[in-house]
């Protein structure tokens, strides 16, 4: 069974949601028969390459908040991340265009190293003092994941390399009705939006495995923290519960 995950490296709930999904998958009886594929979704596609700013400043401007209120938003996400055993820096992180990161992740997918690179890039962006919007840092991360250094640098120097693959993922997300990330699609039958609790992912995996011959896409899980297509990453007031639409 295949699980496809649309996400963006700039999305903190994608970082948290990945950890929660992996927790559910680790306890799933058929985990060795699950293929996980990560797909591209940009939260800020209009931002020019090289145009970066501090996350706290970006949040304050986007939500019309004070810098202190924006720091509070970051602290809330950090608490959720830390509860999953993830590192999370609330100060000093950059925000920028993620198109090159997605292109590099497609190269990693072609070389069988997508999961390794994604994990490293998430960690660098959210937990370490390394800007993933710097080509030199991206090339270093690619090598750490097992990619060839020259091949990674050549991709970053060629804006067309794997660009069509990124755009194809984004078109498919729109066709599936995904307007926020993370967005999980299980066997093209069940959809889950947001960084749901691990229990919701467990229920969805079990149901999707049981109903593998049932056609159509069913939404699983209620509202959960996610980043909308406009880049908003608010926290919902209610906790998630399973529902079908």
Walk me through what this model shows:
The chain has helices at 12-26, 55-63, 67-83, 99-110, 114-126, 135-145, 149-157, 163-175, 198-210, and strands at 2-7, 35-40, 53-54, 94-95, 180-181, 183-186, 190-193, 218-220, 227-228. The chain has 245 residues and is α/β, with parallel strands linked by helices. Helix 4 (99-110) packs antiparallel against helix 5 (114-126) and helix 5 (114-126) packs across helix 6 (135-145).
Layout: helices, strands, pairs:
Blueprint: E1 2-7, H1 12-26, E2 35-40, E3 53-54, H2 55-63, H3 67-83, E4 94-95, H4 99-110, H5 114-126, H6 135-145, H7 149-157, H8 163-175, E5 180-181, E6 183-186, E7 190-193, H9 198-210, E8 218-220, E9 227-228
Parallel strand pairs: 1-2, 7-8
Antiparallel strand pairs: 1-6, 3-4, 5-9, 6-7
Mean pLDDT over the full residue set: 90
Shape: globular
The helicity comes to: 40-55%
Strand content: 5-15%
How does the major sheet shape up?
5 strands, mixed
Give the radius of gyration: 17 Å
Task: Describe the strand arrangement of the main beta sheet, using strand numbers.
Answer: 2-1-6-7-8
Q: Helical element count? A: 9
Secondary structure category = alpha/beta
Q: Alpha-carbon distance between the termini? A: 22 Å
Number of strands: 9
Helix-strand sequence:
EHEEHHEHHHHHEEEHEE
Question: Any low-confidence stretches, pLDDT <50, length ≥5?
Answer: 235-245
